[in-house]
Amino acid sequence: MLETFRGYNGRQLNLHALGIVVSLSGLLVVAPMLPEIIDYFGVSAAEAGVSISFMWACNAAAQFPGGRYSDRLSAGVVLLGSQGVMILGFLVLAAATTFPVFVAGLGLIGAGYGLFEPAGFVLLQTHFEENRGRAFGIRDAAVNLGSALSAVLAVAIVGTFSWRDAFVPVVVLLVLVGVGTHRLNRGEYAVSRVALDPKAVCSRLFRERETYAVLVVMSVSMFLWQGSASFLPAYLQAVKSFSSFEATVAFASMFVVGMVVTPVAGALSDAWSPTGMGVTAMGFGVVGLSTLVLVDSPIGVGLGLVAYAVAITAIWPVMYVYLSDVLATETIGGDLGVLRTVYFAVGSLGPAYIGTAATRLGYTSAFASLLVGFGLAAIPLVWLGRR
After folding, report:
1. Membrane-spanning regions, if any (predicted)?
2. Among 41, 296, 324, 387, whose Cα sits 20 to 30 Å from the Cα of 33?
3. Residues 334 and 325 sit within 8 Å (Cβ to Cβ)
4. Residue-wise DSSP of 308-366
């Protein structure tokens, strides 16, 4: 495992992981602060859910251009550009005093992170021919660390400072990551017009039935992830009688679990079947979410959250290992960008769905309905495993 962190390739992985941690700590800090944001702007849970869905929709729209530019130009160019867009977005959020300005800031950080992620995959694909599963597992551990730190950031801010102040340290750290990205880059920053040509990419990808199966798995998983994570603290406070602090700690604990699970899942996928690992993850999801909905004791809720966290975090390195094996190296940025555009677009509907369902039916019914998703994701995983 340690050799993955060493040398020039290891430094690239370390810096990219740091960029993920900083970026996601800013993106996801919105969720634990959502009750305060709703009160500040005087909006409903449904309106708040739609605003978060807009952020992830912008993320989805930027995925394909980010991947295509990374293939045709360089990952370094796209990484720097994406960090610039996110810095601008976080500055807008830090200054937001009206809900439309807040939503505009969410759109910018969503688009910036949408450019950032496919460029990172091209970077890792280029530098890691061996230990690729471990590299993707470490990358996803960084995702979970950034998610956990978003909760820590929220705890430090709420009740002491304005929620807008949470974005100031994110801006400072992103600037430092950008400087590090520039200094570590060995290539030239060649910028030119790139023909996106999504029709050609889609015609190549969607000739295979496996593509549709992969999209179902990842679209449903992203829908579950975005919907549940965005409203988990609000759900725990409204239904399980958690305090704001307890709900935020519970939210963070899911990502702490993910920090352990994702490197293990990635390493196991190098040796075993990625699809079999995926089916196992879906089983954990059913058990975890059922426990979370049906049990009211703090210990039971905690056990449910652990099992649920295993499911929604383990599936990503598993599927990325599968995709890195089946997608062509020379076009993986654009191909993965198209796939990510689709499943992030579907996933972006999750917060709007949960917010609307919670407003009309209550949080318990909204979260319980997500159980159907684990079955929908397991079916194509079984089919892919038999190919």
Report:
1. 12-34, 40-61, 73-96, 102-124, 136-160, 166-184, 212-236, 248-268, 275-295, 301-323, 335-354, 366-384
2. 296
3. no
4. HHHHHHHHHHHHHHHHHHHS-GGGHHHHHHHHHHHHHHHHTHHHHHHHHHHHHH-HHHH
Distance CA 59, CA 384 (A): 27
Whether residue 191 is contained in a domain is answered as: no
pLDDT digit string, tens, across residues 307-329: 999 988 888 877 877 777 777 76
What's the total number of domains in the chain? 1
76 in any annotated domain: yes
The token pair that represents 275 in the structure block: 């699809």
User: Which residue shows structure tokens 């688009």?
Assistant: 111
| Gap between the Cα atoms of 66 and 112, Å rounded | 9
CA distances 241 to 150, 152, 266, 347, Å, are 22, 20, 36, 28
Scored b (16 or more CB within 10 A) or e, 188-208 reads eeeeeeeeeeeeebeeebeee
Q: Which domain holds residue 86?
A: 2-185+196-385
Alpha-carbon distance 238 to 334, whole Å? 42
The fraction of the chain above a pLDDT of 90, given in percent, is 18
- Whether residue 115 is predicted with pLDDT greater than 70 in this model: the reply is yes
- Give the separation between CA 13 and CA 130, rounded to whole angstroms: 14
pLDDT at 90: 94
Segment 272-288, tens digit of pLDDT? 777 788 888 899 999 99
Question: What number of other Cβ atoms are within 10 A of residue 50's Cβ?
Answer: 18
Gap between the Cα atoms of 80 and 118, Å rounded: 13
Smallest Cα–Cα separation from 308: which of 248, 251, 241?
251
Residue 190 lies in a domain: no
Give a yes or no: residue 254 inside a domain.
Answer: yes
Q: What is the pLDDT of residue 260?
A: 83
> Which CATH number is 60's domain given?
1.20.1250.20
- Please give the pLDDT value at position 1: 46
Six token digits for residue 192: 């030119």
CB 134 within 8 A of CB 266: yes
Residue found under tokens 């807040």 = 102
- Residue with the bigger pLDDT between 38 and 129: it is 38
Q: Structure pTM?
A: 0.71
Q: Which among 293, 308, 301, 297 has a CA at the least distance from the CA of 367? A: 293
Q: Which residues contact 38 (CB under 8 A, 6 or more apart)?
A: 44, 45, 48
CA quadruple 310, 155, 43, 164: dihedral sign? negative
Q: Which of 5-14, 22-31, 286-295, 302-311 has the lowest mean pLDDT?
A: 5-14
